[in-house]
Amino acid sequence: MVDSFLADLRTTSPLEAVSVALGLVYVLLAVKRSRWCWVAGGVSSALLIYLAAQSRLPMQALLDGYYTVMSCYGFFYWTKNKGEATRVPGFWPLKSHLLAWLVILLMSTLSARWLAAATNAAWPFLDSLTTWASLLAAWLEARVKVETWLYWIAIDIGCLFLFYQQGLTFVATLFAVYLVISVFGFRSWLRAHHEPAPAT
Prior knowledge:
single chain, mainly alpha
């Protein structure tokens, strides 16, 4: 298994390697709440649009298109609200999470049925579920909500499986690293949330 993994890494395309490197830069800067995370993340996502489409993961390709747009939003929001982004103001209401998850499950079911019938998608439901959940997680991250990292932990597990199964071992490895960093990200943002607001 290790030999197979190393062989897959050796066949990694330059495009995939650059996307992975920028993805790592993005998540490390996000943990530190630096607005420049959105620049690295936006370029990484733009490259992943092509890679996901080539690997028959259409929902992931659409998701990376959304990430690219959200990176622009996140950069300008964090620039405009610099003080709010450098601390972590709070949580999203529980009832909002519940409503969002009902919508996510509904949309995942509908899009999975369409993908199974109309495309050659490899994993219709899991591809859909990670995509719709990621839309919410990215928005929560842009709005600097602590629980965004809990979403990313679950999403990273799903995406690690998806990309590994489709032969993108380097991208799958990136999601394994994301998973570890997301745990530290949650702890860091939770700690920052409990810090007193700076005096004005």
